[in-house]
Specification:
heterodimer, A: alpha+beta, Arc Repressor Mutant, subunit A, 16 helices, 19% strand, B: alpha/beta, Amidase signature (AS) enzymes, eleven-stranded mixed β-sheet, globular
Chain lengths: 475, 488
């Protein structure tokens, strides 16, 4: 493969997270019985007319803003004509002449190598119905018909399956972050057409393009591309010619196969959709939408490293979920010990959430309480085991850590007299171990500290306990 | 009294009901009886359901007795078989929608229903409104009540014939290239094609979406105004409807007596070779009448008029080819039995559509095809802009335009079926109004020596619907043509 260069471009279809469908008031993302979320408009009944869903426009524009697209203040819709039973009108309302977002780029990182993947445009369109082929018949579920989709088309800037994968992961993370799509691959919320070509190293002209249609898992895309690029190189190496064609991925066999030209060779006969006036946006609206955008994951990661002095690993975990990152940040801003906040969030908090299958929104503990809890530990008011006990209470019931410490009597005992008393009782009850320590076995001290902790019911400050023991054993 | 109930127009019926001189049930019975008597000669209706319609009329009477005083409560109206009325069949004149029952009300229907109207019958139409004679309907040709050997015009020939024959006090119709005005002229009744965007198209089975507009066919301009007033206005279901308010123009229309202070344009392009001499003479007499009523008549030019038909017959079929793609046998309507999907599509459409619809779908598909799109579709869009500018220039100095509605009076059944281009040329004065998105009114302006009606075309700028209605009303106040009745 080294003597060949691959060029990969993606057409990514993403279902937008809107309450209703693209052209009617019926609910999008209906997961119940088939053909219940349907109306004259999304069934394409005679006389029905589309009405644009403004929320879908907002989501697509926000995607464009995230990747630095130029937003078209006047955008139009077109009819894309083709017959298939999943298309109720036998045309799809899409955008060809004047899409909503032009240009833009997504930054990716593969093995520490940063790269910019350019985006050609993003357009808005309607999804088709879901069709299930049975042995002697097919079933069509129109619940999905007219679900808002955006199609993001990249330039052929990716050079390997890994880069394509990195692009899709970066895009998915961004879209989930901004609440634009749940990007649930199992529900078909992200679907890709994958274009690829190879050319000999040292040449500039792109090779002959092959398109693999309808991919719906990232892993599948990686496998299909790996196979397809090798196939193309093999054809060229053996002196053959590649033809521009559309192929499909056979996941079981692990091969791409050419589709019959009948299955894809369409003259779509685009023309302007007469039932939808152009979408006209003003600059102020676009700016207001820009202001709604969250900080992008990559930017947030860099900032967490800079502002909170966290290691890259921590930052990766904390920013994987926007709500988690927000929780961390709120706690860190009220704490003098950011690393401890990170440890608590990654450790106890994620563990507790995971055990109960909860989201961060379900936790009763507030960022302020976590910061206060860490402050109690740092001030040696409580020790770690006590702190974990307090955390569990805060997680389940909420409240103020100091109050919980008081209520449960968990404050560390740092009173010298009391600790001396515990130390004397521990030595008296364990003369043999004490003798070992005096004989030079340093580790014996740990056992005695443990005994002090036990006698104090966990409340003794372990450091003071060790000091008191040392004094008494040597003295 | 009851023997004459069918003679009442829309507003007269409303008055008779308000004054309790008649009940909706009596009126509806009278219309159904007359329909049963005349339909064997006319074939203007595709459906009327005695029981269902009478139940509706009785419900209206009961509501009135209980104090409901909506002005149009219980007034019967006929509906072109292209507009969806919940629970009634909606065939669009096509075999492919035979047996299809509409599951929802078009917006215009919902508004008439809210006003209290009773949907008494459905009127015949050229298949998917494609035609100028009602001969392309899969449910038989409608006959002209003035001469049953002749066509009533089309595509709303059923609505025009039914109103002329007194089978309904008024009817709703649709106009894509003249489909309200031309049959109104052929049948001696009044028809309004409102400004594009003035009346919601939601629920009107689409032919060419950028040209279609719903409007009334009635016995008088006053009646047409009353119906227009109910159906016009912004509709959240139709994004192409205009947000501007609909003024209550009925009082002004009823009070219109003269045309003083109005400047009316007479395009020289509308009086050319090929215009039937008697139609020309009747139109010129009507223009003279308008002058006598105080209007200033000026000569104007619409230089791109002659390209209108060619432009229309590229754009309308292009849009139709997409609008009619949904009739594929998968979800509703007629389905041909076949071995596989492709064959099912082909057979369903081959057997379900008639020849004229197929011709236009093929034509529309062709002009949008890769390689031809720019030469036909794009070029036609540019011509459309030029035609619109022609009108803009004229309306900068004129209040309205006068002319003939049709180049000839009603022709004989079968006369033009063999030559589609001859049929298309019948739209020569009307299609440009749709291309420009402006409004047009057809009012009866006399009869040929053979006893066939002709229509005066009053064309107004966008959203001057009230103005052309006032002009038409003043004309009708001074003339008796619209009061003539065919003897069937």
């Amino acid at each position: 493969m080294n003597d060949f260069i691959a060029s990969i471009g993606l057409e990514v279809h993403v279902q937008l997270k809107t309450r209703t469908k693209l052209f009617c008031a019926f609910p999008a993302h209906e997961e119940g019985d088939p053909n219940v979320a349907v109306c004259p408009v999304c069934l394409g009944l005679p006389g029905a007319m589309p009405v644009m869903n403004g929320e879908a426009i907002r989501q697509t524009v926000k995607t464009g803003l995230m990747i630095g697209s130029r937003i078209a203040l006047r955008s139009t819709f077109d009819r894309k004509n083709y017959f298939y039973p999943d298309m109720p009108k036998n045309f799809q309302i899409s955008q060809q002449a004047a899409p909503l977002c032009l240009g833009g780029a997504v930054e990716i990182d593969v093995g520490g190598q940063p790269k910019t993947i350019r985006v050609n445009h993003i357009h808005q369109e309607e999804d088709a119905a879901k069709i299930t082929h049975l042995e002697n018949s097919s079933e069509i579920d129109f619940n999905r018909a007219s679900t808002p989709l955006m199609e993001l088309v990249t330039e052929p800037d990716m050079a390997s399956p890994d880069e394509a994968m990195a692009f899709l992961i970066a895009l998915k993370e961004m879209l989930i972050y901004a609440g634009i799509s749940d990007c649930n691959l199992e529900l078909g919320q992200v679907r890709c057409d994958v274009n690829s070509s190879v050319r000999p190293a040292g040449t500039d002209l792109l090779g002959v393009k092959c398109e693999i249609k309808n991919m719906n898992t990232f892993k599948g895309i990686h496998r299909a591309l790996t196979y397809e690029l090798a196939r193309q190189v093999e054809v060229l190496r053996s002196g053959g010619m590649l033809v521009q064609e559309t192929r499909r991925w056979d996941d079981e066999a692990g091969v791409t196969l050419p589709m019959r030209s009948k299955e894809y060779a369409h003259d779509y006969r685009y023309f302007p959709e007469p039932d939808l006036p152009p979408v006209v946006l003003d600059a102020a609206t676009v700016e207001a939408w820009r202001a709604e955008l969250p900080e992008l994951p990559a930017v947030k990661r860099a900032r967490f490293i800079r502002d909170y002095g966290l290691p890259e690993y921590d930052v990766g975990v904390l920013t994987a979920d926007q709500a988690l990152a927000e929780f961390f940040e709120a706690a860190a801003q009220q704490s003098k010990n950011c690393k401890a906040v990170s440890n608590w969030v990654m450790g106890e908090l994620l563990r507790a959430l995971g055990e109960q299958g909860l989201g961060i929104a379900d936790a009763k503990i507030t960022p302020r309480a976590l910061a206060a809890l860490i402050a109690l530990v740092d001030a040696k008011t409580i020790n770690m085991p006590a702190a974990k006990e307090v955390f569990q209470v805060l997680f389940e019931k909420g409240g103020d850590p100091a109050a919980v410490v008081k209520e449960k009597g968990l404050a560390q005992v740092s009173d010298a007299g009391a600790i001396d008393g515990f130390a004397e009782r521990a030595i008296a009850a364990n003369e043999k171990v004490a003798a070992e320590f005096r004989g030079g076995k340093e580790t014996a001290l740990m056992f005695l500290v443990g005994q002090v902790m036990k006698l104090s019911r966990g409340k003794a400050n372990p450091q003071l306990a060790a000091e008191a023991l040392r004094r008494k054993l040597r003295g | 009294m009851s023997a004459d109930l069918h003679d009442l127009g829309f507003l007269e019926v409303a008055e008779a009901l308000t004054q309790k001189r008649a009940s909706s049930e009596e009126l509806t019975m009278a219309l159904l009886a007359r329909s049963e008597e005349l339909e064997s000669k006319l074939n203007s209706l595709t459906w009327f359901n005695r029981e269902a319609v009478l139940a509706e009329a009785r419900a209206a009477d009961a509501a009135r007795a209980a104090g409901d005083n909506r002005p149009y409560l219980g007034v019967p109206i006929a509906i072109k078989d292209l507009l969806n009325v919940k629970g009634q069949p909606c065939t669009a004149g096509s075999r492919i929608l035979k047996g299809y029952v509409a599951p929802y009300d078009a917006t215009v229907i919902a508004r008439l229903r809210a006003a209290g109207c009773v949907f008494v019958s459905r009127t015949n139409t050229d298949e998917f409104a494609m035609g100028g004679s009602t001969e392309t309907s899969a449910y038989g040709t409608t006959r002209n009540p003035w001469d049953t050997d002749r066509v009533p015009g089309g595509s709303s020939g059923g609505s025009a014939a039914a109103v002329a024959a007194r089978l309904a006090p008024a009817a709703l119709a649709s106009d894509t290239g003249g489909s309200i005005r031309q049959p109104a002229a052929f049948c001696g009744v009044t028809g309004l094609k409102p400004t594009y965007g003035r009346v919601s198209r939601y629920g009107c089975t689409a032919f060419a979406s950028s040209l279609d507009q719903i409007g009334p066919i009635a016995r008088s301009v006053e009646d047409a105004t009353a119906v227009y007033q109910v159906i016009a206005g912004l509709d959240p279901h139709d994004s192409t409807t205009a947000a501007r308010p609909v003024d209550d123009c009925l009082p002004n229309v009823r009070a219109a007596r003269d045309l003083k202070g109005l400047k009316l344009g007479l395009p020289k392009e509308y009086f050319v070779d090929g215009l039937h001499p008697e139609v020309e003479q009747l139109t010129r007499a009507a223009v003279a009448q308008c002058r006598a009523l105080g209007a200033e008549i000026v000569d104007v030019e619409l230089p791109h008029s002659k390209y209108g038909i060619a432009c229309y017959y590229v754009l309308a079929p292009a849009e139709a080819s997409a609008n009619l793609a949904r009739y594929d046998g998968v979800r509703y309507g007629f389905r041909a039995e076949a071995e596989d999907l492709q064959e099912m599509y082909e057979q369903t459409r081959a057997q379900g559509f008639g020849a004229e619809v197929k011709r236009r779908v093929i034509l529309g598909t062709y002009v949008l095809s890769s390689g031809f799109h720019d030469a036909y579709y794009l070029r036609a869009q540019k011509v459309r802009t030029l035609i619109r500018r022609d009108f803009d220039r004229v309306f900068a100095r004129c209040d309205a335009i006068l002319g003939p509605v049709t180049p000839s009076p009603a022709f004989r059944v079968g006369e033009k079926t063999a030559d589609p281009v001859q049929m298309y040329l019948g739209d020569i004065f009307t299609a440009n109004v749709n291309l420009a998105g402006i409004c047009g009114l057809s009012v009866p302006c006399g009869f040929t020596t053979g006893g066939l009606p002709a229509g005066l075309h009053i064309i107004g700028p966008a959203f001057a619907d009230a103005r052309i209605l006032q002009i038409g009303a003043a004309y009708q106040h001074a003339t008796e043509w619209h009061k003539q009745q065919p003897k069937i």
